[in-house]
Design brief:
Layout lengths: L5 E10 L2 E11 L4 E5 L6 H8 L7 E6 L2 E2 L7 H5 L2 E4 L11 H13 L3 H14 L15 H13 L5 E5 L7 H16 L3 E5 L3 H7 L2 E6 L2 E6 L1 H4 L6 H10 L1
Parallel strand pairs: 3-8, 3-9, 6-7, 7-8
Antiparallel strand pairs: 1-2, 1-4, 4-5, 9-10
Helix pairs in contact: 3-4, 3-5, 4-5, 5-6
Bound molecules: adenosine-5'-diphosphate (ADP) and magnesium ion (MG).
Catalytic activity: a polar amino acid(out) + ATP + H2O = a polar amino acid(in) + ADP + phosphate + H(+)
GO molecular function: ATP binding; ATP hydrolysis activity; ATPase-coupled polar amino acid-transporter activity
EC number: 7.4.2.1
C-alpha cells in the first residue's frame, strides 16, 4: 500500500493552557481533495498550519510525502518545498510586479536561474488565466485576481500538495467563482489538496472527502454526500443548518 500524501497522527496543539487541537487523526491520499469545515475557532487554521509546521505541534506526528515533519532531524525546508499554501489574505509582495512575485521565491528558495524562473512563472500565470497581468502591480488587481496570483506563485514552486485556508473568504461574492474555478482545475489535474472553506457547493462538487471539525477534534469525516448531505452528528447538523 502506498502511504498517504498527508498523514496526521494524534495531533495536539496548545497555546498556553488553551488546547486548540485535541487529538487529530487524518490521512489524505495522493490526488485526494479534502475540504475541512467547521465553526470559527474550531482549530481549522491551526491544523493546516501544523501540516506545514508554521505551528509546532505540542504532541503527535505529521507526515508529508512519507517524511515526518515532526522528526527533529528532518530537513524541514525540503519537506516544506513539497507544500504550497494559500491564505485568506493573499500576502503578495506589494512592491513587486505579478511576475516578480512568482520568480522571486523560485530564485531564492529553489535557486532556479532567471530564464527557468521566468518560464515557470509564465506557464503558471497562464494556468490561472492571468498571463496578461504579468507586469501589473498587485494593488491594480481585483481581490480575485490577486488570489489567483497567490495560487500561481505557490504552483510555480512545484508543490506535491496544496493547502488552502479560506481562500475565498476575503473576496467580494462576484469574485469567488474565478478562484474556485482555478481550484477545481487543480483538483481535476490530480493535485492533493486540503481546503478549509465555507463554500459548501465547492465541497459537495469537488471534494472527495469532507472533514467536520469542532472544538479541536474531527467530529465527522466522510464523503461529501454523507457529511454535508446526511450528517450523522448533531454538531455537524447544527453547523450546516446555520450556513443555509
Ligand atoms: P479556525 O481556523 O477554525 O477559526 P483557529 O485554528 O484559527 O480556528 O483558532 C483556534 C483557536 O486557537 C482560537 O481560540 C484561537 O484564538 C487560538 N489561536 C490560534 N492561533 C493562535 C496563536 N498563534 N496564539 C494563541 N492562540 C491562538
Ligand atoms: Mg481559520
Amino acid at each position: 500500500m502506498t502511504r498517504p500524501e498527508i498523514e496526521v497522527r494524534g495531533l495536539h496543539k496548545s497555546f498556553g493552557d488553551n488546547e486548540v487541537l485535541r487529538g487529530i487523526d487524518l490521512e489524505i491520499g495522493r490526488g485526494e481533495v479534502v475540504c475541512v469545515i467547521g465553526p470559527s475557532g474550531s482549530g481549522k487554521s491551526t491544523l493546516l498550519r501544523c501540516v506545514n509546521l508554521l505551528e509546532e505541534p505540542t504532541k503527535g506526528q505529521v507526515f508529508v510525502g512519507g517524511a515526518e515533519l515532526t522528526d527533529p532531524d528532518v530537513d524541514i525546508d525540503a519537506v516544506r518545498r513539497r507544500i504550497g499554501m494559500v491564505f485568506q489574505q493573499f500576502n503578495l509582495f506589494p512592491h513587486l510586479t505579478v511576475v516578480e512575485n512568482l520568480t522571486l521565491p523560485q530564485r531564492r528558495v529553489l535557486r532556479r536561474d532567471k530564464a527557468t524562473a521566468a518560464k515557470v512563472a509564465a506557464e503558471n500565470l497562464e494556468r490561472v488565466g492571468l498571463a496578461e497581468k504579468a507586469s501589473a502591480y498587485p494593488a491594480s488587481l481585483s481581490g480575485g485576481q490577486q488570489q489567483r496570483v497567490a495560487i500561481a506563485r505557490a504552483l510555480a514552486m512545484g508543490p506535491a500538495v496544496m493547502l488552502f485556508d479560506e481562500p475565498t473568504s476575503a473576496l467580494d461574492p462576484e469574485l469567488v467563482g474565478d478562484v474556485l474555478a482555478v481550484m477545481r482545475m487543480l483538483a481535476d489535474e490530480g493535485m492533493t489538496m486540503m481546503v478549509v472553506t465555507h463554500e459548501m457547493t465547492f465541497a459537495r462538487e469537488v471534494a472527495d472527502r469532507v472533514v467536520f471539525m469542532d472544538g479541536g477534534v474531527v467530529v465527522e469525516d466522510g464523503r461529501p454526500e454523507d457529511v454535508i448531505g446526511n450528517p450523522r452528528n448533531e454538531r455537524t447538523r447544527h453547523f450546516l443548518s446555520r450556513l443555509l
